[in-house]
Amino acid sequence: MAQVQLDNLKTVSFERERGRLTSLTRTGQITGFDDFATTITALAEQSIEADGLPEYGSALAIGDDTLFLVSESYSLAGGDKAAVNVTLTYSNDDEEAGDDLEPSEPSFSTSLEQIETELDQNDAQITVSYDNKTQGGKISVLSPQAELRLAKVFYTNSPGAIALAWVGKTNSTTWNGGTSGLWLCTGVDGSVFNAAEGSWELTFTFQYKPDGWQPQVFYVDPASGEIPSDLVADTGYKTINWYTGKNFHSEFPN
Q1: Which of 216, 217, 213 is nearest to 243 (CA)?
Q2: CA distances for 110 relative to 123, 146, 169, 212, 249, angstroms
Q3: What digits encode the pLDDT tens for the residues 65-118?
Q4: pTM for this structure?
């Protein structure tokens, strides 16, 4: 297995600002490649997996300062044997310590959205009558909607996986004043928070719906095209459990 020997003192460099170490460059050479490493692809693959090579984002403590590995560069060394020169750059890319950085503040907005419903506020079927005939009715109302945006920093190299685990999920327990199923995670946006530490700031968008997010379906009389007035709950009309629940308190307790 290829191995790296670091810290050639002839080429080391570092910088300090305001009494703090802000960047440092380490150099070394990778040798010990397998016999079949005869192509640039094979050399590259074995170089990045060389024994003793620090991983991206790994910390390097020097005195009271801590830097993080932010970049690596490789080049073929001259000579008869296969060897690759490597340059590692460590940095603290913010004037303040990375742990002091704070994610964005929460934000909140409310609005009214027009919806159509066949049920009244007590979840009873709406009916109308004329000439001794009764049928189910539908009304169009303005329903209060709320949107909450919360940000959190994650130390991860897979922010997309975190987002996919949240989007389309409803709160499984009471959360932010809403009983289970009233809050839905409708989106997750992300941006690099601190490249040196390998952290991401993810902003989660939650929307509130007072009658819940699970869709409802009603029987329609095929002859008249109308909704009968005597439908029985869970038979003539049903709530479909489409969205799965998630414990929102796991990341955003309140």
Answers
A1: 213
A2: 24, 4, 20, 16, 22
A3: 888 888 889 888 876 567 889 999 988 764 433 444 566 788 888 888 787 888
A4: 0.53
Pairing of strands 139-155, 199-208: antiparallel
Bridge partners (DSSP) listed for residue 107: 149
CA atoms within 13 A on the CB side of 251: 16
CA distance 156 to 143: 38
Order of strands, sheet of 245-246, starting from the edge strand that comes earlier in the sequence: 107-117, 139-155, 199-208, 183-194, 170-171, 245-246
Tell me the CA end-to-end span of the chain in Å, nearest whole number.
51
- How wide is the angle at C-alpha 235 spanned by C-alphas 233 and 241, nearest 5°? 80
CA distance 127 to 105: 46
pLDDT per residue over 192-242, tens digit each?
888 777 889 999 999 999 889 999 888 988 888 888 888 888 888 888 899
Token reading at 166:
């949240």
What residues pair up with 152 in beta bridges, in sequence order? 202
CB atoms near residue 105 (< 10 Å): 8
Token pair, residue 5, equals 């020997």
